[in-house]
C-alpha cells in the first residue's frame, strides 16, 4: 500500500550549510521540477534532507532510499551511478550525509528520494539538483586585477573612492551549450554581460575577513550569450574591502583597493570548452558616473559621466587603462552558500512635507534599511541631495545619532528625458529622507523605498489577542531583517554596522523562529572561528573589521550559544564537530588567564550593558556608552558555558572531555556561591540581572531557590513597579526564567507594559523597530540607534516556546514539547513555525468555560503535549473522550497538567475549566 503523500520538499544541505532546494511531487502527477539555478556548493559530503507531508496521523519514517546520479537521464531511469543508498532503515529525514563517489569541480549532481513509513511507501520524489563549485585553488585560471592606487576623483581622507569599471570583449564562434560565470569582486561588484546585469543580487558578495576567506558567486549566464562579439563588464565598489574609515589603522582593518578575479566557463554544443578569464587584456577606468561610494556616507552619481554601452561589444575604450595585475587578498576561496542580499520589498512614502528653500522630507512610515529609487526630469548638472535619518526633531532630520556617517546620496542629472536612479554600493537605515535640489514639484510616485536584506524565507507567524504583543513581534521582524547584511550587524544607520557578538547570544535563537537564518549563522560561526587568535582569544566583533579583543566572556560566549541554537533547531552535529576545537581552545584560554585564587572568572568588559536608567528623566541626555564590568556575570556565563561544552563533548565523540567540564562546573558553582550569595537570599549587588543569572543557570542551591525566586519577583513587582531593569545580559534570560519559576503571568506583564522601561514604551513613542536603549527617546545621541536587536533578549523565544508551546525537545523537532503558558489576560494565540520536518502549528483560545487548542505536528515528528487539566476526563479531542483516539496516547499527570503523546497530524483539544 502506498500512503497518500501529497508532497516532498527536498532540502540539500552541505557540510555545515543548509541549502533549501525545493522540488515537489504528487503521486497522481509526477513531474520534474529542477531549479533554474541549482545551488553551487564546494563540499564533498553534503547533507540531504526532505519533508514528508501526509494526511494520515502518526506517520513515522522507517526507511529511505536515495539515488544520486550524474545526469537527469540516469536518475529518471532509477540509476544512482554516484550513490545508491539502497533501502536504509532509519527515521532520519533531516541529516543524511552523501556517501557516494568523490565529486569533481563543476560537476552537476541530481538526486531523489523514496521514503517508507509505518503507513506505507511513497513514490519517488521529483528530482532536485546541485552543482559542485570550484573545489581547488588551481581551478581558478585567471589572475587578480585592479588598480592599486588613488585616482583624482577619490577622497582618501573620507574613505570614499570612485567605482572601478572593467571590461573585456571576446568572440563566440560556435553554438553554445552552457556558460557559467565565477566571480570574486571585492569589496562589492556588479557583473554585466552584453549590457545586462547578471542576477538580481545586490551588495554582493557577503563580507568576510578577506585575509582568511573570500566568497565567490556563481551565475548561469547562458541566456545572455549568443554567437558573435560579446562583452563582459564589472563595476567594483568599496564594500568592507576598502574600509569606510582609514584614519584609525590601529582599530579599523582595511584590505586595500577594490580588485577582482573571475572566469567565464564556456561549454559548446560540440563538447569543446573555453575559458574567458581576468588578465591584463581587460581594460579599466575610475572615471565613471559613480564618483564616490561608501557604506557609511552614501553614493554620489554624476549621470553626465555615464558611458553609454560600456558593457556592450563595440564600445570605444581607447581612453581606458590596461588593468593591472594586483596582489591577491590571501584568503581561501569559498562558494557563497549563505543567501545574497536582494531588494526584498518596495515601500512607498506615506507622506511628503515641503520645507523651506525647496526641500522636501519624505516619510516612509517604517524604519528599515536600504535606499530609495528616484525618478526625475530636469536640466543637466542639477544636483539632488538625499539625506537619510531614522527620525525628526522639530520637523527636520535628526542625524546626531549617526555620528560622523554622512548617510547622503547625490545624483547629478544628465538632462533631457526622465531619469531613474538608485545607488549600487551603499545602504542606509532610515524612515525619513530629505530631498534637496529636486527640480519641479515632487510627487509620492517619484520615490520608492527599497528594503534590502539577505534573501531568506520567513518561517514563523505569531498573532495573539493582545495587539501590543503583535506590534512588538512586527517591530522585531523589521529590525531583524534590517540588520541581515551577509553578517548580522548591530545597526544599519550610523558609522558602526558591525557584527557584535554581544548583540546576539539569545536573540539569534529568537530570530530562528522568524527567519530561515541557518545559512547566515553558519557562515557567521565560520567568521568567528577564523577570527580566533592563535592563543585562543576571540574578538567582540567578527569578522574583526574592528580590532576589539577585550577578552570578556559574555560577548565571545555567543560563539557557543549560536552553535547550540543551530544544532538544536537543525540537528546537524557537524556544526559542533567543526567548531568544537576552537571553542575548547577559547574556554581553556579564558580559564587559565582569568581565574583568580578563589576560582572566580574575573574578566568581563561590559557588565549588564545598557541597563535602563532609574527613570526616563535620569537618563535624559546621558551617554549610554559606559562599562560596568562584573565578575559575577563572567563567572555565571562561564559556568553555563561549561555545561554547554559538556553536552558538545558528548555529541562530538569527545566524551573524555565531559568529565573535566562537569568537574570544573561543580567547583565553580561552589566558589560562585561562596563569593556572591548573600544570606538574605540574593546574589551579587542584588540587581535583577545578578539574580536572574543565578536562577536560570542553576547556580543557586536547591534550598535557596524559593528565597531567590521571591527576591526576583519582589524586585520586579515592588521596586520596579512591574517593569524590568535589565540590560543586554539580563534581558536574554528574563522571560524564560520567570516562566520556569511558574510566573509566566509576570513575564506577560513585562511584555505588555507601555510605560518606561518596556518594549511597549518604544512603540508608544513612535518606534517601528526595536531601539538600542530602553530610553532611546531621551538618551544622548552618541549611542542611540533606533534599529537594533540586542534588547529583544529572549522575548521571541518566549513568544514561540512558552506562549505558543512550540519547542524542540529532541533531534531538531523530532520530539516537540508543547507546554504553552495560558496566561490570564491573553485570550488567544495563533503561531506557526516551519521546521525542517514541516510546519508546526499551535492555536489556542481561552474563555471562562473551556480552552480550545488546535495543534499540527509534521510527519516524522511527535509531540509531548501538556494540557492544563486535573484529569483526562476533562479533555476531548475531535469531540471524543481520551481513550482509543488514533495518534493520541495518555502518559501521566504531572502536577496540574495531563501529559499526552501525539503523533503527526492535526488535533483539536477541548479542555473544560
Automatic annotation (TrEMBL):
Pfam families per UniProt: Bac_rhamnosid, Bac_rhamnosid6H, Bac_rhamnosid_C, Bac_rhamnosid_N, Ig_Rha78A_N
Domain Alpha-L-rhamnosidase six-hairpin glycosidase: 459-803
Principal EC category: hydrolase
Keywords from the named record: Hydrolase
Top-level taxon of the source organism: Bacteria
InterPro entries: 6-hairpin_glycosidase_sf, 6hp_glycosidase-like_sf, Alpha_rhamnosid, Bac_rhamnosid6H, Bac_rhamnosid_C, Bac_rhamnosid_N, Ig-like_fold, Rhamnosid_concanavalin
Domain Bacterial alpha-L-rhamnosidase N-terminal residue range list: 175-344
Every Alpha-L-rhamnosidase concanavalin-like domain range: 356-453
SUPFAM superfamilies: Six-hairpin glycosidases (SSF48208)
EC number(s) stated in the UniProt entry for this protein: 3.2.1.40
Residue span, Alpha-L-rhamnosidase C-terminal domain: 805-879
Membrane-crossing segments per the record: none
Reaction it catalyzes: Hydrolysis of terminal non-reducing alpha-L-rhamnose residues in alpha-L-rhamnosides
Annotated protein name in UniProt: alpha-L-rhamnosidase
Species this chain originates from: Sphingobacterium griseoflavum
